[in-house]
Amino acid sequence: MARIKSVAIIGAGASGAITASALAAEKSFDRIRVFERRETAGGTWIYDADPGPPFQLHPGKIPPEVDPPISIPRTLPVATDPVTRERFDRTPIYEDLTTNVPDIAMSYSDLPFAYGPFVPHWVPKQYIEEYFSKHEVDRYLVLNTTVEDVSRRDPDAESGWSLTLRRLNPVTRRDEWWAEDFDALVIANGHYSVPYIPQVPGLQESPHRIMHSKQFRSAGDFTNKKVLIIGNSSSGQDLTTSLLHSAALPIYQSRRSRGRWDGDTPPPGVVWKPIITRYLPSGDIIFSDGSMLSSSDIDTVIYCTGYKPSFPFWNTARNGGHPLYDYAQDRLLGTYLHTFFQRFADLAIVGLPRVLTFRSMEYQAIAVARLWAGRNAVGLPSTEEQARWEANRVELTRQERRKFHDIPWDNGETMEYLRGLFELAGLPRLEGQGRCPPVLDERTRWAIANLKKYPEPEGEEDGICSLSADGNSVMIHCAEDEMTI
């Protein structure tokens, strides 16, 4: 691969911020650009008080159907009428959302959060903005600009990318289109934009108000309303807990299986139900155990069923016919360490694995920057070995019935994953070029294992712990004692 001189980053959220910093630290690239479709950095942590008009629900449909590419003008540059189609650019942040990873583990290694351990949503948003400025990479930001197409610069070549870009001119109210070329590309666009709702017979004909958690903003909007929550992962737990203070009780919660925070019985004010098998035109809701909620039992159904990654800019036809994502398998195709691409040495993705959020992105970004600067300590394995890694992971996650990009902490998999990126990156040069991948020290590992946003039944006998910082020391407060590390 020829020397990389220019790099584009799609997205100015947490993964875009750390990637820009890591690339800049190498002092090896002549041009770095961070394209962000919103008006500021912050990514999914930007709070939109107005979630926008209710969007059309598409039960069972995937992003290529719901968020397809838009038509690209034949000639560039050009100005056109503005795009009015739904682009899912508003965020899913609700009013009382807090983080669920301890601050000591979630923040980047060189800048702590203002406080912790679990902070309100505006702290990560401000943190990301500050991080761009702290590392003087805010000058790379190109805001209010959407990447609409990513294609090989030359379809017959094996390097280089052409990006088609669109920006609304606020004065003329016209979309301005242009193209820019780069030697390498990092995809850092996040994966909390396009909501997913499973297909259930009768759902679209139901007289109930049915919505996705992406449009939820405040429990106060549901005062005295009878609510059914679908799902018991992070957002399902958050919304159920929040609604207990305002909605009519009980809150019904439909669960496919026992969640990480679920005990043997539901908390006061909550009634558990199994999955829904059918919505009836009368408004009755039928569950898999044969039980029913009548139309008078429920006003609103809120689906907390997550999101699917969307890459409408990826031009499969012009990129060798290689799709980026397999929605049937719910995973990226042809990757290594959830970061590198076997077919494209000048393409990387940062931020997709479900792991330690900001901190894990730091390891990814540094490994990418070191590799593209030609300063990595260990080379990538052969494409055959990378393909073997991918095949082995497909089989492992199939056997364990979990998602390909989910990396758990408790079984040691997170440490193994981060160690691979750590060893690939190596140390900065003696002269100072590059970032050092951070250590995951004892204090941080303890926080990950012990500090929980919600009590988890398996650890109840050990009590619930919290953490506070004072200078270089950390005070740990547990049920029966406290300690300083």
TrEMBL record:
Q: Which GO terms describe its molecular function?
A: flavin adenine dinucleotide binding; N,N-dimethylaniline monooxygenase activity; NADP binding
Q: Which Pfam families match?
A: FMO-like, NAD_binding_8
Which Gene3D superfamilies does the entry link to?
FAD/NAD(P)-binding domain
What InterPro entries does its record include? FAD/NAD-bd_sf, Flavin_mOase-like, FMO-like
Respond yes or no to whether keyword Transferase is given for this record: no
| Keywords of the record | FAD, Flavoprotein, Oxidoreductase
Q: Which family does it belong to?
A: Belongs to the FMO family.
Q: What is this protein called?
A: FAD/NAD(P)-binding domain-containing protein
Q: Which organism is it from?
A: Aspergillus heteromorphus CBS 117.55
